[in-house]
Amino acid sequence: MAIEVLMPALSPTMTEGTLARWVKAEGEKVAIGDVIAEIETDKATMEVEAVEEGILGRTLVPEGTQGIAVNTPIAILVAEGEAVPEAGAVKPSKPAASAPATQTTASSGAAPTAQTTSASLPATGTRIIASPLAKRIASQKGLDLSRIKGTGPNGRIVRRDVENATVQGATVTPTAALAGASAPTSRAVPHSSMRKVIARRLSEAKSTIPHFYVSVDVELDALLALRSQLNATSPDEGPEAFKLSVNDMLVKASAIALKRVPNVNASFTDEATLLHDNVDISIAVSIPDGLITPIVKQVNQKSLKEISKETKDLVKRARAGKLKPEEFQGGTFSISNMGMFGVRDFAAIINPPQAAILAIAAGKRQPVVKGNELAIATVMTVTLSVDHRVVDGAMAAEWLSAFRSVVESPLTLVL
Amino acid sequence: MSGTDFDIIVVGGGPGGYVAALRAAQLGLSAAVVEARHLGGICLNWGCIPTKALLRASEINHLLHDLGTYGFSAEKVAFDFPKIIARSRAVSKQLSTGVAHLLKKAKVPVFEGFGKLDGVASGKRKVLVTSEKGQPVTLTAKHVILATGARARALPGLEADGKLVWSYREALVPDELPRRLLVIGSGAIGSEFASFYRNMGSEVTLVEVAPRILPVEDEEISNLARKAFEKQGMRVLTSAKVGPLRKSDTDVTVAIEVDGKSEDFTVDRVISAVGIVGNIENIGLEGTKIKTDRTHVVTDALCQTGEPGVYAIGDLAGAPWLAHKASHEAVMCVDAIAGKPVHPIEITKIPGCTYCRPQVASVGYTEARAKEAGYKVRVGRFPLRANGKALAMGEPDGLVKTVFDASTGELLGAHMIGAEVTEMIQGYVIARTGELTEAELAETIFPHPTISESMHEAVLAAYDGALHF
């Protein structure tokens, strides 16, 4: 009995994804749990595992196809010796592994068309008139048909419109029509899935969350001294087996501060403020195409060594695009550290549904006044961005004070 | 309007010219047609239509000699050749008269004579019409559409003499059936004449300088056409060089070289079908900004020449030399003049049909050209031998082939050979024009039993889903 493999929803927010690579080829045997394809979604490349066994009869979408709606058939599995039927005449399987339940809008008709229906329509509900080929190319290139002007009969969007949009940028209309105007100096780079998600989530965060910002200078010398001591101590695993970073220690310091001022470890909802018991810290990691926030969970219960090892592993896999959704979705607080870039200070955008994010700038040796004396200290500025619906100014200040006290008296970190 | 002043003057009354005039009238513009010989042009009078009438006769002759296949027998099967020719002429005449009626109904005057651009007077183009019958007339208009068509190319040494060596023109009105015929050139025109004469009973040799016959078609189709021709008893020579014609009073001997080996052929008649050239002479192009390339007028995508207000359409404006291309350009050109939104013609959306037996029809990219253009293709094939209707008809030879862009599912091209394929190709043309992908074609329900089902199967086959083969 032939079975359609559907585009899985690999995260709760995922509505569409890109088929990055077919791992199994047509005609190859597939066992339950075998990886058959790699899907690029919101933030990561993830693997689609087979939930049925059989032969990969046919792949229905070519590699690199973007904007494949969740639950679109992507392949047909058949039993050994069975002929491969046409798509559409086949019973859909359960969505592939690890897919949480989502509403099933059964894709109608032949499978290869289904992805075209995912071409985003404007919220007004106006029907976009476009040829099937134009829809498909737009979806493959990640173009928004609602922004493309159709030049076909009755304004129908046809292939040339989509292709011209790719060249000019769907939203960019070159203005200069001066005689002998030079060639266009901008070029359109189609949005990756990740870029679309970053754009959507951050616009939403910045426009719906009333942000405010509180900064404080923190002296780092004690923490740096402790770090040297700890790193010099040969651990059980042997020398150089691990090396604590300043960031590891600041993650732990944040967790302690969150335990001391638990109201910052919270989320705003329309009905209530959710106070989280666990301290799960999202760490912003820049990757070639954008950024991703792997989560160190239950930081308050972990040692520096555990935090360090876990962070290294997460960052490595984040850069390889191999994080599982649960490893970067969720979290109760975020840290964005740009110290390595030498920045003086900056403010970050809150990562919803969290209530705060800590922006860490570079530590610099500078003169400070101690009592009545001038002294030299390594000082960094940290800025807490806070959701004012959850946290008021005084509480933000209280949290920063707690954070500073942990960093400046860092033995708490190893207790 | 004074009777000689118009919005648009169309020079040439073929399928480009008369359609341009009809469209202009439809849009409320005043238009006139200048035509030297016959309304309907080569197409109606000396091309598409009379050849179809002849080919119909040759199909019937073929069937009459194949009656046993269908359980019939007949004795003394014979034809009256002059009657066959006369019927072909009558069909042309009927249609040409029809065009005259259409123009009259649309109130488009027809000026008999040769039209020629004759400069500009007070912002209007002048067209001088000369005729042997009467005084020259000068017409004026803001816009002039040149649609003077094309004629057979005369290669040195192969010029038609009207007696032993024919162009298409003489080949359409022979006094009697030649016993031995040599056809030089295997494009649509050469192949149709070769097929007609062979099916009427002539010994036919078809010669092509290219490595295969019907060289613009997909290679597989060319090869199948050749096989079919040879099965019918035609001799087909490709990659062939034709030597000088040595004429006697009643026959022609010519040396034809293939693979370095030369062979003498003696035939009663030769048809020269080695291409066509545009009628660019004596239409007043000299001294204007209108450019020509070899024998064709150079235009932009909307048929505008280098001279403002002067347009060229159809064969005069270059390949493909097809009546339906001319007519489409006519409408596009007039619509553009009238300020309506138009789109340039795309050559890969123009179908081509050849009415030899078996028929050949195609649109868009051949497999080879698609690959050259950088497409990764999916190709589907379906032989008519697996189609019920084709078998029932006794027409099992043929193939439908589709070429898709593997990444977008665009139907890049379709190529067909077999019975009735010229009537079916429009299905694929609609798909290309409507920008349907394999998905819509796969979902389309084709009627059973028809030969057109093989078009559906050829789509499915490209995606490994053909059901009946």
Structure description:
The complex is a heterodimer of chains A (415) and B (469). In chain A, the strands form 5 sheets. In chain A, strands 10, 13, 16, 17, 18, 19 and 20 form a 7-stranded mixed sheet that branches. In chain A, strands 3-6-8-1-9 form a 5-stranded mixed sheet. Chain A has 3 domains: 3-109, Beta Barrel (OB fold (Dihydrolipoamide Acetyltransferase, E2P)), CATH 2.40.50.100; 119-172 and 186-207, Dihydrolipoamide Transferase, CATH 4.10.320; 209-414, 2-Layer Sandwich (Chloramphenicol Acetyltransferase), CATH 3.30.559. In chain A, strand 19 and strand 20 (373-387) form a beta hairpin. Residues 94-124 and 170-183 of chain A have low confidence and may be disordered. Chain A is an alpha+beta fold and 415 residues long. Chain A has helices spanning 111-114, 132-141, 159-168, 193-208, 221-232, 246-260, 304-319, 325-328, 393-408, and strands spanning 3-6, 16-22, 29-30, 35-40, 45-49, 54-59, 68-69, 73-78, 91-92, 211-219, 266-268, 273-275, 281-283, 285-287, 290-292, 295-296, 333-337, 356-360, 364-370, 373-387. Chain A has 9 helices and 20 strands. Chain B is α/β, with parallel strands linked by helices and 469 residues long. Chain B is built from 13 helices and 24 strands. In chain B, a hairpin with a 6-residue loop joins strand 5 (124-130) and strand 6 (137-146). In chain B, the strands form 6 sheets. In chain B, strands 1, 2, 3, 4, 5, 6 and 19 form a 7-stranded mixed sheet that branches. Chain B has a 5-stranded parallel sheet with strand order 8-15-9-10-11. Chain B has 3 domains: 5-152 and 277-346, FAD/NAD(P)-binding domain, CATH 3.50.50.60; 165-274, FAD/NAD(P)-binding domain, CATH 3.50.50.60; 358-462, Enolase-like, domain 1 (2-Layer Sandwich). Chain B is 31% helix and 27% strand. Chain B has helices spanning 17-26, 41-46, 48-64, 81-105, 168-172, 188-200, 219-231, 323-337, 367-372, 388-393, 421-433, 438-443, 453-462; strands at residues 5-11, 31-35, 110-112, 114-121, 124-130, 137-146, 150-152, 165-166, 180-184, 203-207, 235-237, 240-247, 252-258, 261-267, 269-272, 276-278, 292-293, 296-297, 310-312, 352-354, 359-364, 377-383, 399-405, 411-418. The chains are: A alpha+beta (415), B alpha/beta (469).
